[in-house]
Amino acid sequence: MTKKINGCIVANLDINKTNYSFSTSIIDALNEAESELQDVEGQIKESTETLKKVTPECDKIDYVLATTSGAICGIIDVFLVGKPGESPIGNITDEWFENRTKDFAKLCGWDSKNSSTASAIGFLERKFKIPYDQRGAGDAASWVFDLSPKNHHFKSLAHNPSLVGLFFSILDQFTDSSHFVTGGELISLQKADNKFELKGNNVPSKFFCAFVNWFGHLISDMSGASGSKGRGMGIPSPLWTWTNDVIAIKRKSNIPVSKFDNSINDLALNIYKEGYDVRFQTAQAIPVFINEIIVRLMYSVRRMINYFVKTDSKEYTFKSLWKECEPFSNASVKRMITVAHGTFCLIDVGDATARGFISGGGNFNVAEFFMRLNIVGLGRFTISLYGEVKRKSQRTEAQEKNYYLKRKKVVIEDYLRGLKILSEIYDDKDLIKFVDDFEKSDMYIQAFEKSVKLADKRMVPNDKILRNKDDIDDYFGGSGE
After folding, report:
1. Which of 376, 370, 379, 290 lies closest to 84, judged by CA?
2. Are strands 185-190 and 177-182 parallel, antiparallel or unpaired?
3. pTM strictly above 0.70
């Protein structure tokens, strides 16, 4: 039972005629507390490492370099990407897509003796025939669905490089139909091509053939149709075809299509007809990619130079070098990338806004603005901002955990100091043997001495200590209390 004796606490002390015992020994408490302290120190180390991982350590030079990279790539975007039809980089990506179309046609058996792109496209169109390729030229679709060679790749859902596009492509091939989005409506054309036959002996093989036809036909349309004059109309940008997907899903779900949906869809269609397709979207991605590479490269080079300057040559290892300048997973390079893409977007949006007002003659030309707006760069900057918010949350959580663990460590250390004091006070295994010594008449003198020392350690008042045999005789004779 726990008792208070002369101002001291004795925890669960059991006493009988010849000995005493603690139900929980101080030594056990010490061991347990030390083990808990080691565990807390390990958690503090882990929490500190986590905090370090999500805390950027960029200096002024890092921020200047990141801003410079973003500014340079922003200028590249303004003058070398621009808008469809006026893009030097766009001309390069157009040629690249033409070459990839030829390469794919060769893989599929195209005779490359006729090296023209139109020949390769015509071969792929015949190889991957589908029922939904109505172009609205001289047929009913031109006035029923408002189709034309300049818009049918966009309005035809199966020509869209998206999951919804894949779904409607397979549906159209199984049912010999064709689906279009026009004027906010989902239009279905039944018996679209009576000559079409989906290959395959069973349902799984037909699904596979339908997927191959969808993919192969998209490749054939990347650089326009076989009869296209000039640049041709490629497949629409996957970052804009969602406007078709929204309308199609709403119509299938009997959900009203809003004016905003129609407005955005009309905008996407208008900029597509100006040449904003997957080829131009790729051109927009180039300065964004360059910006990313430059920032990561500058980060690595700076850290590598610092490593060789501060590290003794005898301690050089590839592992330590990579840990010092690895440009992917640490918070510092991610902060630099956020700054770089933010600078890039600032220049890009500023240019697109100015060109929108200039081309509108005082009014704001929305189509011009979005044709010049680098959506790839804007999307990359959004991802970086999301990462910054997430790391901020992780830093706050790690800081709170670190603070709590450090306070817990202080409490445990204070507790350990108290236990050590108690262990010194109650370290009396030899002294406590005085009970046995009293049982041996020839050792009573040493027993008295041990009992006095024990009383001193227990902080018994001096006037209450029996120091010799006479004191004991007086006490039991009636003079003591």
Report:
1. 370
2. antiparallel
3. yes
